[in-house]
Amino acid sequence: MFSSEVLLEAQQVVSEALEAGLTVASAESCTGGLVAGALTAISRSSSVLKGSVVSYTIEIKQKVLGVSKDIFEEPSLGAVSEPCAAQMASGVRRVIGSDIAVSVTGIAGPTGEEPGKPVGTVWFGITSNNFTHTVCKHFSGNREQVREAAVLQALQLIHEAIVKA
Question: Which of 9, 45, 126, 158 is the most buried (most CB within 10 A)?
Fold first, then answer.
């Protein structure tokens, strides 16, 4: 189901979060829960992963995660944008009550391309008590490959946040 690289990164996240006494949460759109799935594939992850919200629609991004409607009304922003990723991460951290939260929102393809946002564009948000950071990546490949790359990136961001904590 997951590549060995994803599972190795998930194992590292779980081990380091356990050692640091930290909890994590995820808000996922284009990955549809795969970040949480990768973490829960690892033994003892129940002590680390507090929960996840699959916010595949704008409605859920707004109602559950508290993403501002202004983001979706601004043509240059939308669901695949830096402010959306930041607000998704902050929102899931607040709702779940975790120490660290990651968000993933993007276009996995094969359709959905928008002007300036080709298939493979994915925004990530990562937040903790000390910081909120966003990053945009452009992955190549088919839908499955884009989603796999996005999961790996999200896990790497969680890992980096644990190290910074």
Answer: 158
